[in-house]
């Protein structure tokens, strides 16, 4: 088992990671009868994509002795209404490191082939933009 999810009422859940006991609260979004007071389950899917990208980039950077401290991402989830589902995820990765062109290629490829990216349905459009400062 990985996690345990408990319904808290009012379209909210508490998700507990069993190994660490850390928790995440979810809430239905405002446009789907919720209060929007926490991540929605679909927010977590979109956020997981960016988090996975940064995680595997960090693993690859460490293995190749590439500086990796000043990297962050912002996420935009795109939904459709009929059926209600995620149709796109836009990830903007901002890097304030002085990577070489080869390092950029290695880490960008790693990000775009992360496990979450490869697990999402092909109909979910993944748009990933890298911004170098």
Key terms for this structure?
three-stranded mixed β-sheet, 2 domains, three-stranded antiparallel β-sheet, alpha+beta, GMP Synthetase, Chain A, domain 3, 133 residues
CATH level-4 homologous superfamily of the largest domain: K homology (KH) domain
Given the helix and strand composition, which structural class is it?
A: alpha+beta
User: Taking all residues together, what is the mean pLDDT?
Assistant: 97
| The CATH top-level class label of the largest domain | Alpha Beta
End-to-end distance = 41 Å
Uncertain regions: pLDDT < 50 for 5+ in a row? none
| CATH architecture title of the largest domain | 2-Layer Sandwich
For the biggest β-sheet, the strand order reads 1-2-3
Write the H/E string, N to C.
Answer: EEEHEEHHE
Any idea what the radius of gyration is? 17 Å
Please summarize the sheet with the most strands: 3 strands, antiparallel
Number of helices: 3
Strand content: 35-45%
Shape: globular
Structural description of this entry:
By secondary structure, this protein is of the alpha+beta class. It folds into two domains: 3-32, no CATH class; 41-132, GMP Synthetase, Chain A, domain 3, CATH 3.30.300. It is 30% helix and 37% strand. It is built from three helices and six strands; from the N terminus they run βββαββααβ. It has helices at residues 41-63, 101-112, 115-119, and strands at 3-9, 12-17, 23-27, 71-81, 84-95, 125-132. The strands form two sheets. A three-stranded antiparallel sheet has the order 1-2-3, with no helix packed on it. A three-stranded mixed sheet has the order 4-5-6, covered by helices on one side. β4 and β5 form a beta hairpin. α1 packs antiparallel against α2. The radius of gyration is 17 Å and the shape is globular.
């Amino acid at each position: 088992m990985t996690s345990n999810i408990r319904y808290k009422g009012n379209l909210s859940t508490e998700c507990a990671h069993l190994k660490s006991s850390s928790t995440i609260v979810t809430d239905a979004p405002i446009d789907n009868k919720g209060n929007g007071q926490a991540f929605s389950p679909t927010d977590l899917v979109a956020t997981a994509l960016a988090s996975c990208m940064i995680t595997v980039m960090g693993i690859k950077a460490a293995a190749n002795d590439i500086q990796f401290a000043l990297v962050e991402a912002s996420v935009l989830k795109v939904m459709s209404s009929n059926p209600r589902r995620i149709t796109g995820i836009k990830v903007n990765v901002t890097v304030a490191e002085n990577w070489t062109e080869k390092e950029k290629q290695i880490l960008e490829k790693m990000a775009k082939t992360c496990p979450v990216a490869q697990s999402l349905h092909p109909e979910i459009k993944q748009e990933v933009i890298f911004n170098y400062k």
